[in-house]
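Quick question, first post here. What does this chain look like in 3D?
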Amino acid sequence: MFFSIDWKGLALPFAYLIVLSGALMTFSSIYRKRRAAESANLAPWFGPNLQRNVYMSLMHMEPEDGDENTPGVPVSVLKAALLRRAVEDIDRLIQIKTAKQACSSLLQRGSVGDDLWQRFERAEKEMEEELRDVVTEANALVPNWGPTIFQSAHEISGNTRLRERLAEIEAQTEAEKAWWEKRRGQISTEFMKELDEEKAASTTQGSEDDAVLVDTPSKN
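> Answer (accepted):
Ran it through. Tokens below.
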């Protein structure tokens, strides 16, 4: 037994689905563009990467005499600049890893808005691109340097933080030593003042006792 399909009756639902799908696609496209525009207008998580700018400036520096055959910046200088750039990236990566859990918890509790999380996600993507770029540049300068450059940068960064911490401890020690020297001087001054007051009081008491003895009439 065959059934005939009423195409005219199905035309309206199909048209509704087509219009609904088109509206959803338009809304999704507008929403993504708006989110991208808002994300572009958000303040960056980090400030300008000075070490990256220095390295890029050295890379594009031309020879002073304008001769293309004359080498520009020495490779050793470029290597040092790229290593400093990698150290800066390590420091920023540590900050991102430290802040990620805190930002996620604050976002779940509603303590911060979505704009902060968008800034954080953009910073993560920028760091991923930056790390890949540094590895590419390292391999271009020295073959197979890319896999080890960040290991060297991590050691340099750790040593720098250790020296800064030791300097802070030494500064605290000097401050505490200065405070104690000052406090000891105050204690000594207060102690000597108390001794002088006690000595003065004893002298006054002795003078009064002598005066009493002098004024007492003698018995015949």
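The longest helix spans residues 146-215.
The CA atoms of residues 99 and 120 lie 9 Å apart.
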